[in-house]
Amino acid sequence: MCAELALPLPQPWDEAAAGWNEHTAVIREWLRDVTDAMISAANIEPGSQVLDIAAGAGDETLDIAQRIGSNGYVLATDLSPRILALAHDNLRAAGFSNFDTLVADAQALNLGGKKFDAVVSRLGLMFCTEPHLALQQAHLALRPKGRFSAVVFSHPDANPCLGIALRTALKHANAGQSATCAAPPNPYAPGTLMSLGKPGLMTSLLANAGFTDVEVRPVSAPFCWPSSRHYVEFVRAAGSPLRAILSPLSLEAQAEAWNDMAQQLDQFGTPEGWVGPNELLLVSATASNRLNGA
Ligand SMILES: C[S@@+](CC[C@H](N)C(=O)[O-])C[C@H]1O[C@@H](n2cnc3c(N)ncnc32)[C@H](O)[C@@H]1O
């Protein structure tokens, strides 16, 4: 076999891995309450066996490892080998040994029949182009009556900063192209930031995947930064989807796009600093009573 064919494909989040990891402190602060709520909704307790899907650099995995203690176990999975290597290092550096990491697509986990008490996913499922497959995989990984909980971005009206950032990136990326190319993007296009925020979508996807007790709760989680420029610097370093849209442009054209974004986002400045509205959905559900896929 040709050696090149055996190499893993580069993943979009490989490029943003270091940037996401370097912003762990602000991400942790931003998502603290909803992360606690997600862990509680999944009934994670000392001794639990937990699967963390799209774990990134492992920020929520650290909280899970702490909650389950030395008798528990957490498997952190992610599509990007580079960001998952950071999760491994972060967990080890924090002194945990009750975990493993596995590079895996959420839509095809391949866990060999292993069953977990709880499956969670924080800000990852919306990047799946076939989220119904990811939820089927989550259900398959749960023991009967196991708990699922996840956090995704809500709909565009509640997330104006994401909307402005996306529209501005696309406007700059499509500059000079035909009107068809520059048509407004579908905010719910599969695999994009707010794709799972469509009202009613998570409820029906979870029910179709075999879950019961489905709950979907909007949670306000504003982005707080000293200024819009700080927020844009975060997105520039850690926002894989926006980086990907702008990557074909020259560095100069990219800088113009980031600058344009910051100017438009200035509207969320307050005397106390910049506060960008942001809404998440906290979803939770119970796996069916039967052992599935056994
Ligand atoms: C915004 S980061 C969230 C990381 C982490 N859960 C957190 O909240 O800090 C999104 C993560 O989803 C991962 N991801 C995207 N598509 C995926 C897929 N199809 N399967 C597994 N992981 C995926 C990316 O590699 C990235 O690490």
Write the layout of secondary structure elements.
Blueprint: H1 3-6, H2 12-22, H3 24-41, E1 49-52, H4 59-68, E2 73-78, H5 81-93, E3 99-103, E4 116-122, H6 131-140, E5 142-153, H7 160-173, H8 201-208, E6 212-220, E7 223-225, H9 228-238, H10 240-246, H11 251-265, E8 269-270, E9 273-276, E10 279-286
Percent strand equals: 15-25%
Q: What is the CATH-assigned architecture of the largest domain? A: 3-Layer(aba) Sandwich
Q: Rg from C-alpha positions?
A: 19 Å
Tell me the overall shape: globular
CATH class of the largest domain: Alpha Beta
Total separate domains: 2
Structure notes:
It is built from eleven helices and ten strands. Helix 6 (131-140) links the parallel strand 4 and strand 5 (142-153). The protein is α/β, with parallel strands linked by helices and 294 residues long. Helix 2 (12-22) packs parallel to helix 5 (81-93), helix 2 (12-22) crosses helix 9 (228-238) and helix 9 crosses helix 11. The chain has two domains: 22-155 and 194-222 and 277-294, Rossmann fold, CATH 3.40.50; 160-188 and 224-275, no CATH class. Residues 1-6 have low confidence and may be disordered. Bound molecules: S-adenosylmethionine. S-adenosylmethionine binds at residues 13, 27, 54-56, 59-60, 78-80, 83, 105-107, 122-124, 127-128. Residues 13, 27, 54-56, 59-60, 78-80, 83, 105-107, 122-124, 127-128 line the site of S-adenosylmethionine (SAM).
